[in-house]
Specification:
This protein is an alpha+beta fold. The chain folds into two domains: 154 residues, de novo design (two linked rop proteins); 150 residues, 3-Layer(aba) Sandwich (Glutaredoxin). The chain is 51% helix and 9% strand. A four-stranded mixed beta sheet has the order 6-5-8-9. It has a two-stranded antiparallel sheet with strand order 1-2. Helix 5 packs antiparallel against helix 6. The protein is elongated and about 75 Å long. The termini are far apart.
Length: 325
């Protein structure tokens, strides 16, 4: 291999060695952003923390790169060692994609992928350099497994974003300004002074004018500090001023995250209410679930206070978040 390729591979190997070593020593816990980290943090093989095996892999890989004399291909020892690392990483990530992802393991696998790309792929010509079929299969398997865990991690970490209120609010309402049932329900909530202080509003953009109305609500809330005034602003003729690119992008991302959250929990229609304090809604036309041990009780209802089935049509007064054709 060329000197440049060898130097890059050596650098990646040493960085991987350092990362695995400090992780084995417990110095990277602050980088753990997923629940699987605690599960795999103390996992051991033959009584040895698995991150020490990562350190061993990258250390041997670095030594093998140094002693790889051929300019055209990898020597058998380096090929076998790289195959072992790719296979082990792929198996571990496949298991995590089906259970609980570990962010630290993702970082280690990323170093393995970078090392494999450096040694096996001519990036400029998108050509796989090694003739060893097993290496190619293991590389592709790890690449797919890494992508699967990334998707799983992203899905598990999706959190809705409110336009008014915060994630700790006791009553969370997902709504769209173009949904008549949503507007009616929100107006009803403004008449209940016990609900307003605990209310968080999560917008969904369905129609093209929704973004302008949502922005108007936000501006009114910032101006007056009143949730009631912000909700009333929905019913007024919107002033369709040209919004900045940042405002449009911000509202679209907010709506996408809220839609993604609803999709994750199997909801396809708004309005949708989540509450941790059913007593706050007991005086309203919101059905209260009985015998539900879940600390966060879910409701989905139309303007008449009737619980809506998932995926109902607009004719039932529950606006469809993801219209079907």
């Amino acid at each position: 291999m060329s000197r440049k390729r060898k130097n890059i591979a050596l650098t990646i190997s040493l960085l991987g060695f350092v990362f695995c070593t400090v992780t084995a020593l417990g110095l990277t816990d602050q980088l753990c952003t997923t629940g699987g980290c605690s599960l795999y943090r103390d996992m051991s093989i033959f009584g040895i923390n698995m991150y020490w095996f990562g350190s061993l892999f990258f250390l041997v890989a670095a030594i093998s790169v140094i002693f790889n004399k051929s300019a055209d291909h990898l020597n058998p020892y380096l090929s076998f060692w790289l195959l072992s690392g790719l296979t082990a990483s792929a198996i571990l990530l496949i298991v995590q994609s089906l259970t609980s992802p570990c962010a630290l393991c993702l970082y280690v696998a990323f170093f393995v992928l970078l090392l494999a790309i450096t040694l096996l792929v001519d990036v400029g010509r998108l050509k796989f350099l090694s003739r060893m079929l097993a290496l190619k299969k293991a590389f592709i398997a790890l690449l797919i497994a890494w992508a699967m865990v990334i998707v799983t991690t992203a899905n598990q970490n999706i959190s809705p974003v409110p336009i008014i209120g915060d994630s700790q609010s006791a009553v969370k309402v997902f709504f769209s300004p173009s949904c008549p049932s949503c507007v009616e329900k929100l107006i009803e909530m403004t008449t209940n002074n016990s609900v307003l202080p605990h209310l968080a509003l999560y917008p969904i953009i369905i129609n093209k004018n929704d973004a302008a109305v949502i922005k108007k609500m936000q501006n009114e809330f910032f101006r007056s500090g009143s949730v009631s005034s912000a909700i009333d602003a929905m019913t007024e003729t919107p002033i369709l001023n040209v919004m900045s690119f940042y405002d449009k992008l911000n509202l679209r991302i907010m709506s996408f995250l809220n839609k993604s959250f609803l999709a994750k929990i199997g909801v396809q229609a708004v309005p949708y209410v989540m509450t941790s304090s059913p007593g706050l809604l007991s005086v309203m036309s919101v059905p209260v679930a009985q015998g539900d041990n879940n600390p966060m009780i879910h409701y989905i209802f139309n303007a008449d206070g009737v619980k809506c089935p998932i995926g109902v049509s607009k004719g039932d007064k529950c606006e469809v978040v993801f219209p079907t054709r």
